Inverse folding.
């Protein structure tokens, strides 16, 4: 039964996401839309199997929620910080620069999530990750305290993402 | 689905004010990002500025849209969330490609102030901010 379900629904979360997207787009939960959305959801997941990615194991829903709150707060804070830098006169704009962080995470889904978190937070951009050495290169708009950025990435984001994905 | 009854006169003042505030804040942040695109000096600095528009800027406008149309239609209108989700997961791809190609070109041209191929943690920083990771 388990194997049959795995065959029918190779990516259950992806299918659920497609169904929810379809219902939101149509703004309706009528039976017809649910059936059509479910067909799309199954088809989408089957299409995904041709890419041959492993099914992500996602755990700790509370951690996901908490990480979402943390990232939201950080996005708001760095929006304000970057806006301040933009309006500051050119001579007092701080020091932008590249910095390297050594990551312990190897899960591709976790790394993808970290890339999205880092890049969608204004002021930091994911530049390069070497899976051989585990060193991540990011560009920071205000590189005053590098140790603080390392602490943010390692302890605020990476630790929680590793709990979720590994 | 043509909503003739969706006339904006029907919007109660409190909702109109909230919507106006959200749309104004969103537009202001997006404008700030565009100003940054002009004011900041180097490519790597400039690429940070438009993220204001793609995060909170869009977020405020979407919340304004949700408030406005939820009140006008008298039912919850939350499909704007989809815009936020897709924007959040797709814009980083574009930003990353831009920065990586700029970095590639700077390395090929041998320009200053770009890290070498295999950076080590703490190397670009001041000695007092050295990172103890290993």
């Amino acid at each position: 039964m388990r194997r049959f379900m795995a065959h029918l629904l190779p990516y259950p979360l992806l299918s659920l996401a497609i169904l929810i997207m379809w219902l939101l787009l149509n703004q309706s939960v009528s039976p017809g839309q649910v059936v059509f959305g479910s067909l799309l959801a199954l088809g989408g997941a089957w299409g995904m199997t041709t890419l041959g990615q492993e099914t992500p194991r996602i755990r700790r829903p509370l951690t996901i929620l908490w990480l979402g709150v943390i990232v939201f707060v950080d996005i708001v804070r760095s929006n304000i910080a970057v806006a301040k830098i933009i309006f500051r006169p050119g001579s007092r704009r701080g020091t932008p620069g590249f910095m390297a962080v050594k990551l312990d995470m190897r899960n591709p889904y976790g790394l993808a999530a970290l890339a999205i978190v880092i890049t969608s937070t204004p002021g930091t951009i994911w530049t390069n990750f070497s899976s051989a050495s585990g060193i991540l290169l990011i560009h920071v708009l205000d590189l005053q305290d590098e140790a603080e950025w390392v602490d943010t990435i390692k302890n605020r984001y990476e630790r929680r993402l590793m709990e979720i994905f590994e | 689905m043509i909503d003739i009854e969706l006339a904006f006169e029907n919007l109660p003042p409190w909702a109109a004010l909230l919507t106006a505030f959200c749309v104004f804040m969103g537009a202001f942040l997006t404008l700030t990002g565009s100003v940054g695109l002009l004011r900041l000096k180097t490519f790597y600095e400039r690429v940070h500025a438009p993220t204001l528009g793609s995060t909170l800027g869009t977020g405020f406008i979407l919340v304004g849209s949700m408030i406005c149309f939820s009140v006008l239609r008298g039912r919850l209108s939350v499909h704007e969330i989809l815009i936020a989700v897709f924007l959040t997961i797709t814009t980083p791809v574009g930003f990353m490609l831009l920065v990586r190609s700029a970095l590639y070109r700077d390395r090929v041209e041998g320009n200053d102030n770009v890290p070498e191929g295999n950076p080590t943690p703490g190397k670009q920083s001041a000695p007092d901010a050295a990172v103890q990771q290993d």
Observations:
- Chain B touches chain A through 49 residues (CB under 8 Å).
- The helical segments of chain B are 13-39, 43-46, 51-73, 80-109.
